[in-house]
Amino acid sequence: MSELTLILGGVRAGKSDFAEKVAQVGNRIVYIATAEVLDEEMRKRIENHKRRRSPDWETIESPDDLTESIRQIGSNVDVIIIDCLTVYISNLLAKFSEEEILKNVSEMLNVLNNFNGKTIFVSNEVGMGIVPDNKLARDYRDVLGRTNQMVAKAAKEVYLLVAGIPVKIKG
User: Fold this and answer.
1) Which domain holds residue 26?
2) Nearest by Cα to 122 from 49, 73, 71, 58
3) Which positions are catalytic?
4) What is the average pLDDT score of the chain?
């Protein structure tokens, strides 16, 4: 089974940078990106992420089917980084019900049972703010919160990034 690590935090807390440092334990690293270029600001964010990564890393773009992307990764991979669940859940929420999304997450975690390397999930902690004023935002917060709980339960290690400082909360 894959050794899972979950890295949580707020926006611009240093989650991706920390995930990339944790990934350095492996020789062959696959970076699964869930974001799509939808506007100029997102294009710049994605370009900044790409510049930080080693050119040796393989990048897979998977905005709406992490399970299948993980299945297609070969056994000679040491580390998978999934960045990020926050965007992934947002992408799925536009197409699926909460029940279907959580089933998808459960299936993804089951597929990782067949991977012998390290898997690092990046996600935002969205449950510490005010209650959103609209149903879609509340549904999103709830589904992402439940997803984070599922991954945290399966994870060997969980970190919370606060102002760029990793705080280990499990493991």
Assistant:
1) 3-170
2) 49
3) 49
4) 92
Q: Could you read off the pLDDT of 11-51 as tens digits, one per residue?
A: 989 999 999 999 998 889 999 999 876 677 766 766 776 67
Judge contact between 53 and 20, C-beta under 8 A: yes
Q: Map the chain to HEC letters.
A: CCEEEEEEECCCCCHHHHHHHHHHHCCCEEEEECCCCCCHHHHHHHHHHHHHCCCCCEEEECCCCHHHHHHHCCCCCCEEEEECHHHHHHHHHCCCCHHHHHHHHHHHHHHHCCCCCEEEEEEECCCCCCCCCCHHHHHHHHHHHHHHHHHHHHCCEEEEEECCEEEEEEC
The domain tally of the chain equals: 1
CATH of the domain at 146: 3.40.50.300
**Residue-wise pLDDT tens digits, 81-123:** 999 999 999 999 989 999 999 999 999 999 999 999 999 999 9
Between CA 115 and CA 124 the distance in angstroms is 24
Q: Say whether pLDDT at 138 is over 90.
A: yes
Residues contacting residue 71 through CB under 8 Å, at least 6 positions apart: 111
pTM reported for the whole predicted model: 0.92
d(CA 122, CA 31): 11
